[in-house]
Amino acid sequence: MKLNAEMTQDVLLIHVDEPRIDAAVAIRFKDRMRDLTDGATGRVVLNLAGVEFIDSSGLGAIVTAMKQLPDGAVLELADLMPNVDRVFRLTRMDSVFTIHDTAAEAKRDHAC
Amino acid sequence: MPVDPMTRDGGTVSSQPMVRGLAPALILRADLMAVRDALGTVVGDLGEQGLTVEELGSVELVLAEVLNNIVEHAYLGDASGEIQLWWTLGRSGLHVRIADAGRAMPDGKIPLTLERRASDHAAMVPEGGFGWFLIVGLAHNIVYRRERGMNVLTFRMVVGGGDSPGD
Predict the structure, then answer these.
(1) Interface predicted TM-score of the whole assembly (ipTM), two decimals
(2) Minimal CB count within 10 Å: which of A8, B59, B75, B92?
(3) What residues contact A104, with CB distance under 8 A and at least 6 apart?
């Protein structure tokens, strides 16, 4: 599971370098997110620009990643492809996460 | 484990044609990576038949949910289980039939969770149970039944109605 973290200003940006977050990798995704966000204190932005496909297990893993964040940290999402965006909309999870059009916009956005 | 008289040969299904003798288009092992491969095959085939990227995304998502459910809940991770998949693309869309010899659905019914709602309070957000919500949101005419000791799920997806060549 290739996830790369980048600390920029006050945002921990995590790039998902995998085309799929699905049932086959959901557990590894959760574990890797726990490692990367351990000690996070503010905004964590998950950049999904490279993700072409997500299923309900992948969605559940992202929700888990949000819940396992340390107190005070918050998970936001950026750059959803249409197929990924639809999964969030159909499950109404788009109302739970702040979703940015791009990672660059997420970095600029200080209001949260 | 009680022996189902219809599957006492160990759960193999090769001697039980499911669709009036038609062979399944695809047979796969109950394994999450095998599901990935199968999705790639089906999406590749349907892409050649003119489905749009969005339609392919819907089909892939619904198939993924159904197949992963079978791997995780019908076969409980037993990768020796077998899943059979048929599909036909016609004027009324994509008709799909999926059969497995795993455990039956709880209470013999699809576990519909149509009341699922997101909450603004993070702690209240469920981590699972989205699968059937997605299936019901994207597929039509969903029918589940036990048939000769097997789970058989059929559904239709409204795709391929655009300016696809042929048909």
Answers:
(1) 0.92
(2) A8
(3) none
